[in-house]
Amino acid sequence: MTSMENAGKAAPHVLPPLPFAENALEPTISANTIRVHYGKHHQKYVDTLNQLIAGTELASLTLEQVIAATAGKADKASIFNNAAQVWNHTFYWKSLQPKGGGTPPASLAKRIDAAFGGLEGCKKELASAATTQFGSGWAWLVLEGDTLKVVKTGNAETPLTKGQKPLLTIDVWEHAYYLDYQNRRDEYTNAVLEKLINWGFAAENLG
Ligand SMILES: [Fe+2]
User: Fold this and answer.
1) DSSP symbol at 60
2) pTM of the predicted model, to two decimals?
3) CA 153, 50, 79, 56 torsion: positive or negative?
4) H-helix or E-strand containing 141?
5) Exposed site from 103, 153, 166, 185, fewest CB < 10 Å?
6) In this structure, are residues 152 and 138 in contact, taking their beta carbons and an 8 Å threshold?
7) Which run of H or E residues covers position 31?
8) Could you tell me the distance, in angstroms and rounded to a whole number, from the CA of residue 9 to the centre of ligand 1?
9) Distance, CA 185 to ligand 1 centroid (Å)?
10) CA of 42 to the centre of ligand 1 (A)
11) Number of H helices and number of E strands within the chain?
12) What is the block-wise mean pLDDT of the chain (207 residues), using blocks of 10 residues?
């Protein structure tokens, strides 16, 4: 068996490709931030997850199954944290796009109007969730039952384990913005909402 085959068996999860070039989100998010955030942090979550589950019964599960199997289990917290961070980051990259922002597709816009009284109300709630999340975490637009909601989660926590369907997310860990905005999380959040957020991706997730 070659070393490549060994690596494949020990490492069932892989870092998905970025859906855009490293510098495609500039000037809102720099290529430098993406190199560290995607290339180092996201990669490290993948690598650590693979190490933690190697040779265990979790190694044969999909990423979503690993998250479901370890959520809320104190003795599996490290595995949950790394698995959820792999999932959350992949979802975050898809929640952004060059020349994003603007207005949602009609199917989503209608739901946003019903839930938030309009797009501005929705963006305000997302910005508020992002800036009031104490410490590291995530701001999300989710579908709960038939209703759109904005929620925030701490650290690696994800709406996937809370009966909610994620539509889009904003990473508010410091590593997402500190190189570009230092402590100004509100500026980062507002810039993402105005310039990068991918409403089309959120609309697709409505299903
Ligand atoms: Fe992150």
Assistant:
1) G
2) 0.93
3) positive
4) strand 137-144
5) 103
6) yes
7) helix 31-36
8) 26
9) 13
10) 7
11) 10, 3
12) 34 90 98 98 98 95 96 98 98 98 97 98 98 97 96 98 97 98 97 98 95
